[in-house]
Amino acid sequence: MSSAANPAEAAGTPAQDDLSPLEIGADGWCAQARRCESPNFGPRPAGCAVELALIHSISLPPGEYGSDAIERLFANRLDWDAHPYFQQIRGLQVSSHFVVRRNGELLQFVSCNERAWHAGRSAWRGREGCNDFSVGVELEGLEGERFEDAQYARLLPLLRAIARRYPLQGVAGHEHVAPGRKIDPGPGFDWPRVTGGLRWHGRYFPEGLRAPR
């Protein structure tokens, strides 16, 4: 891959947030992440490369942090009777490649080489089915609320690691690929911190969020 096609190689010196290098191996797993394998995945379509990093937010129950409910959901082991909210998602089978907890802990559930179930009905730059060509990153948080410094400090190195391993062409939020259906990560997410911290060309970000060239 040429440096012109790889934002990680063209980004220059890492920003202040980007203090902890991460690496994704040829098997699609990040050695620095806590591995929590999910059964909810499948193969990517033949010849389909990872071109999009898709950022989400998640908390279970909504607005409550620190439990193992997210891990249990992605492992199909959530006790649906443990909280009234869980009845609304009863039987849901989903996953994401990564989760970044409030304290910055990084969890990985699916190899980046595989297709996780995180985007649902979605389209990016006219291309439907974002699960086929994206890596999903869930930030523990609630739409509209702020995320923690520790999460940004983990997210930026993670995005750089994805770009080093795959021909990444963009970073977007769930709200950008499923407008009207999803609103995460929401207005509490600091996009300027991400675009400015990565210092990638503006074409890697949705319109209105692009950092200066």
Describe the protein.
The protein has helices spanning 7-10, 69-74, 149-165, 174-177, 191-198; strands at 34-35, 41-43, 52-58, 98-100, 106-108, 114-116, 123-124, 127-128, 134-140, 170-173. With 213 residues, the chain is of the alpha/beta class. The protein has one domain: 3-Layer(aba) Sandwich (Lysozyme-like), CATH 3.40.80.10. Strand 4 and strand 5 form a beta hairpin. The chain is globular, with a radius of gyration of 16 Å. Mean pLDDT is 91; it is low at 11-16.
Average pLDDT across residues?
Answer: 91
Number of domains: 1
Strand order of the largest sheet: 1-5-4-9-3-10
Radius of gyration (CA) equals 16 Å
CATH architecture: 3-Layer(aba) Sandwich
Output the CATH homologous superfamily.
Peptidoglycan recognition protein-like
In CATH, the topology is named: Lysozyme-like
Number of helical elements: 5
| Biggest beta sheet attributes | 6 strands, mixed
How far is it from the N-terminal to the C-terminal residue, by CA? 22 Å
Count of DSSP strands: 10
Q: Which secondary-structure class do the elements indicate?
A: alpha/beta
Molecular shape: globular
Q: Into which percent range does the helicity of residues fall? A: 10-25%
**Element pattern in H and E:** HEEEHEEEEEEHEHH
* Fraction in beta strands: 15-25%
Q: Poorly predicted ranges (pLDDT <50, ≥5 residues)?
A: 11-16
**CATH class wording:** Alpha Beta
